[in-house]
Automatic annotation (TrEMBL):
Location within or outside the cell: Cytoplasmic granule
Domain of life (superkingdom): Bacteria
Entry GO CC: cytoplasm
Family: Belongs to the DeoC/FbaB aldolase family. DeoC type 2 subfamily.
GO annotation terms (biological process): carbohydrate catabolic process; deoxyribonucleotide catabolic process
GO terms for MF: deoxyribose-phosphate aldolase activity
Entry EC no(s): 4.1.2.4
Pathway(s) it belongs to: Carbohydrate degradation; 2-deoxy-D-ribose 1-phosphate degradation; D-glyceraldehyde 3-phosphate and acetaldehyde from 2-deoxy-alpha-D-ribose 1-phosphate: step 2/2
Organism: Prosthecomicrobium pneumaticum
Top class in the EC scheme: lyase
InterPro entries cross-referenced by the UniProt entry: Aldolase_TIM (IPR013785), DeoC (IPR011343), DeoC/FbaB/LacD_aldolase (IPR002915)
One Pfam family this sequence matches: DeoC
Protein name in UniProt: Deoxyribose-phosphate aldolase
Amino acid sequence: MAAEPVQIRGAAPADAAALPNVRPRNEGTPLHVEWFDAARVNLSAAERRAATITTRRTVKKEWQAAWLVRAIQLIDLTTLAGDDTEERVARLCAKARKPLRDDLVAALGLDFSLTTGAVCVYPAMVPAAVRALEGSGVPVASVATGFPAGLIPTRLKLEEIRYAVEEGAAEIDIVITRSHVLDQNWRALHDEVRAMRAACGDAHLKAILATGDLRSLRNVYKASMVAMMAGADFIKTSTGKEDVNATLPVSLVMARAIRDYRALTGFDVGFKPAGGIRTAKDALAWMTLMKEELGTDWLEPELFRLGASALLGDIDRQLEHFVTGRYSADNRHAVA
């Protein structure tokens, strides 16, 4: 017997990709070293606070299902492999357009078009992704600037950004030069990100800080502030290629930087953790962090994304368990 539809409370009836941009874009500011130069981060306190994220707050039953539906809307569905092909990208885009099976959508009572937040690919794969997503409203994001290391000349970084934008990318995930942070050369970092922002034009810029390479949470905070001053629309933890990628303590520090920047300038900046986010439980932890530290506005695709490739499969599995009361075999879940 088919399951009765379950109305998911808390899942907004809106297409994530079609959410209107209701707030002004971060214009950036001149470099103000005094805004962050004296900043200090207590590592043990940050770790203790991060440890409470998954213990002090939980969501259960239909509320958890609603949060997982929203998590789908927040995913930048990603493929960044050396053997990517147009066929693989097309399959990923098909999954982004239709992340859940029709029977699950019906059983959950979803009365809106559910898609992921974006599809993220290498610049060479942007044309294929644009074709595959035509008419869906799902934006194409492209990494650029010599991803993942970023160790190519600035001229080539800017050319790569312009190429991806010209081919149809609506969002650009850039990597910063880590040595600018390690050398405390904030002017060079500000000028670099500012030039990249200009090259993006109307495309939104996500600044990847590669926090696993920055050596301290203090450096993470300072780099976050400088990237936002330079006009970054999002700050992002990692490329997914570092030894240490997204962690809750790092994300907490970056969220606090976003909060401080908003208090100083009035601009809202988005946040994107990436690398190692594989399970529905992981997604709920980062969403809880956003809600507690920045508020419910940061549970919208406009201000929060989850960079992931395997996450959607586990969310699919958890939602099927909610609907049917049992976990299905892996072969029942599509592989993008």
